Amino acid sequence: MKKLVLLTAIFGLAGALSASAADGKEIYTKSCARCHGADGKGQTAMGKKFGAKDYTDPKVQEALTDEAAFKAVKEGYKDKEGRQVMKPSEGLSDDDIKAVVAYMRTFKKK
Description:
Elements: H1 2-31, H2 33-36, H3 45-50, H4 58-63, H5 66-75, E1 77-78, E2 84-86, H6 94-105
Antiparallel strand pairs: 1-2
């Protein structure tokens, strides 16, 4: 009986994590891809204009902590001159933002 409960919990957690990744992709597509690109390379017109980073680059991914990415989505991001280049998210919960950050991590090339 304990094994059954444990297996049920494990599969439930795996399903929840999978749903989060799917939600992250959906949110990214709707809210982020315009600038950062569907592929995460930042080579859109808006991405080039505002200097979006290439999230497929392992060095870029390594330099960006989850906490910093979360903060940028939640609070917006300013460049070195103090100009706002990314507006704060609107209507996203903390869990939504975490899902977006997790999805963004999938762009990293090995």
